[in-house]
């Protein structure tokens, strides 16, 4: 016989309760924000997500036709240009976002994990960029692969991660690293929703009175 | 939990101020459209570079002397790949981080034998159409000891008029001229890639061979891609490339890295350390106070401080 007590201890039940209390719908999709959320700096987090969406969308179009299509098709070349500029805008927005969050000390109030997932996403993105550059199947790819291998080899990582192996690099670039980047970004944004946007530093007056 | 004293770089006072309507999804949608327009404009305006890849064939045709010199270098062990060490071979210890030869310790996992893989095996594979003189040269090479082979390679000279060698019976000039013929025909490209059967997506061998030559560097130099030109972050043409690698390439330009044989591992270790600082910044006393000290936050939240400044003044 299953008792009420047993049901409340089920994994599924506990997961539902935990999720609902950590992520109530009005936190996930709030209809308002604190008044201090009024600065151009908040644009860059959203811009980074948008650029990431563009990176993935244009990458998917390149994937439909395969890695060498863009050398022989003018449409393919344009899609490659879109992919490249999505990446440049993505990194630009992300780095401004990073510096913004730094100067806001946005890790305060239990938001350290938000900062850290952001940092890991940054490093993951650098890996995605590098593997992308060496998957271009052109001179640039040849040069970057042969140059970057020395740094990677010097750490011992090169013994399993071979920049000169196009098959391996392409897999990392289009499967593993995008999966990681998207999962990390999801976690990152989710954590911002859970914790709410960090309040400004208290001013002298607020501090003494509060 | 014990109550810790309030630390302004770690804790926040709960927000009791007001809130304002904010349409998150609409903002996200507008941002996506704006970013899409920006990206499309950049792509239309600037496009993207696509410099054709080098092949062994194009190399041997464009600079035959460099190709033959490089191939001879493989035989005498003078090239970068021949002396590289792990993960390709045991020729050297590779760069060290203090007492740690991490590169060597990781082992030879992608075995490349520059003499065998780049020169001898491709020539051996030329069965039909192989000339009698090449067959004889290969026989002599295979029968010889390593010191004898090295003597031959070192006696061989690449001159303006071709490859020559003083010692009678030195097979190296014949090997090199046959390899050149193979290279200019394009057969060597295929032979280096198809090392493991029909399918291959692994270009380790041809890339290492091409990178051993000067021709590759000459082409890169024309594109501003050399390390001394901050090359790692550059892209062919005048595109922004991997600008986010500026700090990584920066270290290569300055002492002690720019004069160290261990630069690769030292720079990487430095970057791993700095990345650690970045990720664990919220826990690092001193560093995590920089934003508060810098006061840049006053600029970021200018609106807020202007408003609350007015509101709180009467409270004093
Ligand atoms: C793929 C890369 C990234 C994406 C898509 C992204 C996206 C976002 C978004 C949408 C927000 C909420 C809105 C905002 O405050 O701007 C946010 C907040 C935040 N991000 Fe990122 N981010 C990324 C990388 C980073 C990096 C590299 C860091 C720092 C190392 C970082 C640190 C933070 C922090 C601390 C917050 C909380 C801000 C607050 O509470 O006010 N993020 N991020």
Overview of this protein structure:
The complex is a heterodimer of chains A (210) and B (316). With 210 residues, chain A is an all-alpha fold. Chain A is 73% helix and 1% strand. Chain A contains ten helices and one strand. Chain A has helices at residues 4-9, 11-22, 25-28, 43-65, 69-72, 74-103, 112-134, 139-154, 166-195, 204-209; one strand at 32-34. In chain A, helix 4 packs antiparallel against helix 6 (74-103), helix 6 (74-103) packs antiparallel against helix 7 (112-134) and helix 7 (112-134) packs antiparallel against helix 9. The N and C termini of chain A lie far apart (54 Å). The model of chain A is unreliable at 205-210 (pLDDT under 50). By secondary structure, chain B is mainly α. Among the domains of chain B are: 56-219, no CATH class; 223-279, no CATH class. Chain B has helices at residues 24-46, 56-62, 64-76, 102-105, 114-125, 132-143, 146-155, 172-185, 187-193, 204-212, 214-222, 246-253, 263-279, 290-294, 296-300, 302-312; strands at residues 19-21, 156-159, 162-165. Chain B has a two-stranded antiparallel ribbon with strand order 2-3. In chain B, helix 2 crosses helix 8, helix 3 crosses helix 8 (172-185) and helix 5 (114-125) crosses helix 8 (172-185). The longest helix of chain B has 23 residues, at 24-46. Chain B starts with 18 loop residues before the first strand and ends with a helix. Classes of the chains: A mainly alpha (210), B mainly alpha (316). Chains A and B meet through strand 1, helix 4, helix 6, helix 7 and helix 8 of A and strand 1, helix 1, helix 4, helix 10 and helix 11 of B. Strand 1 (32-34) of chain A pairs antiparallel with strand 1 of chain B, so a sheet runs across the interface. Protoporphyrin IX containing FE binds at residues 42, 45-46, 48-49, 52, 94, 97-98, 101, 106-107, 111, 114-115, 118-119, 121-122, 185, 188-189, 192, 197-198 of chain A. Protoporphyrin IX containing FE (HEM) binds at residues 42, 45-46, 48-49, 52, 94, 97-98, 101, 106-107, 111, 114-115, 118-119, 121-122, 185, 188-189, 192, 197-198 of chain A.
